[in-house]
Amino acid sequence: MAKIAIILGRLVIGGTTMDTLQVARHLQQEHELLLITGGGQKDEFEAAYLTEHLPSIRHERIQGFGGSIQPWQDWQSYRQLRKVLRRFQPDIVHTHTAKAGLVGRLAAAAEKVPVIVHTYHGLLFHGYYKPWISRLMVRMERWLAAKTTRIIALSNMQRQQIVEQYRVCSHEKIAVVPLGIELAAFQEQREEKRRYFRSKYKLPDSAIAIGIVGRIVPIKNHELFIQTVALLQKARPRLRFFVVGDGHLRRKLQQTCTQLGIDQAYFPEEPRLATVVFTSWITEVDKVMAGLDMIVLTSHNEGTPVSLMEAQAAGKPVVSTKAGGIDDIVIDGKTGFTVAEHQPEQLAEAIIKIADQPLLMQAMGDAGQAMAEQQFRKERQVNDLNKLYLSLLANH
């Protein structure tokens, strides 16, 4: 049994949080775990309630530990984190997300933790910041890599970017551990969950519901989704579109709908069916995936988008921009379609192709589910991670 400190910058609704906590739930059966987290930023939905399902794992909160760089607050977080690690005396520190990777690895190195691991859930070097900031971040990550025992990438493409494009570390220092998800939640009681979702959002049986799931932030490029709706609303009136999630750009996105003549409703305040329904945060994603007929992703940059993995586990076809590690989880033409960025016409064409052919929709959904069962199992991810931990400890 090893003592493992898991450090996650922001405990908020999202793929990174869900993945990290699900892995922790499995690891606690074999190891002594300490979960260290910060809070969320404005317009992010706190997910502290999820730790209630991890009763045997100690949980430490560090205020301000997450979000943008704030030198004084980050220094305080660093000092507090060192104290926490000193008390726990971990064999392994595993950091997730950029801020946790910075403060966490520095604190772990200062406390001489034997094994330090960092996972890149996405790359902040493209699409998030101005070029000069991105260059500075790459240099910082190279410096941090020297203090890291092993870096984890979620896909082969991500590993190639980290090693060859950005030269953060050598091939020898990086391991690929693809994400997994809890498949059962998306495969059990589907019809019951589907009826619940479609009844709540007043969807008739004839409607085809298409959704985008995630934080409403610039990198997710929801504008492309709305531009595509504008192309489809008159040509395919039975299509209904759902923006599942929230964020500081939600109101601006609603304004874009109005400017484009798209009927929209923010469901928590205006509970009615519209061409575009903004649901805000929904914690029961399995019901969302059961109720929707197709899932779309429009991101500029992605690591491994959990929403597309969940969609395929639920037997739903997907349409996505070719961003980051998409090709590792979506088979173009078989489990869905991938399209170029900034091309609403291509996105609309792909959506129509699936929506107009029920047999194709079913075939793609079935292929996605088969792929999920073969490649996306959480047990496989946990087993890979456990082997890596034990190997690193043995070689220390």
List the helices and strands and how they pair.
Elements: E1 3-8, H1 15-27, E2 32-37, E3 58-61, H2 71-88, E4 92-96, H3 98-110, E5 115-119, H4 131-145, E6 150-153, H5 156-165, E7 174-176, H6 184-187, H7 190-200, E8 208-213, H8 222-232, E9 239-244, H9 250-259, E10 264-266, E11 276-280, H10 285-291, E12 294-297, H11 306-313, E13 318-321, E14 336-339, H12 344-355, H13 358-375, H14 378-394
Parallel strand pairs: 1-2, 1-4, 2-3, 4-5, 5-6, 6-7, 8-9, 8-12, 9-11, 10-11, 12-13, 13-14
Short synopsis of the structure:
It comes from Phnomibacter ginsenosidimutans. By secondary structure, the chain is α/β, with parallel strands linked by helices.
Task: Explain this structure.
The protein is an alpha/beta fold and 396 residues long. The protein folds into two domains: 3-180 and 377-394, Glycogen Phosphorylase B (Rossmann fold, 3-Layer(aba) Sandwich), CATH 3.40.50; 184-375, Glycogen Phosphorylase B (Rossmann fold), CATH 3.40.50. It has 14 helices and 14 strands. The chain has a seven-stranded parallel sheet with strand order 3-2-1-4-5-6-7, with helices on both faces. Strand 8 (208-213), helix 8 and strand 9 (239-244) form a beta-alpha-beta unit. Helix 1 packs across helix 14. The radius of gyration is 21 Å and the shape is globular. The mean pLDDT is 92.
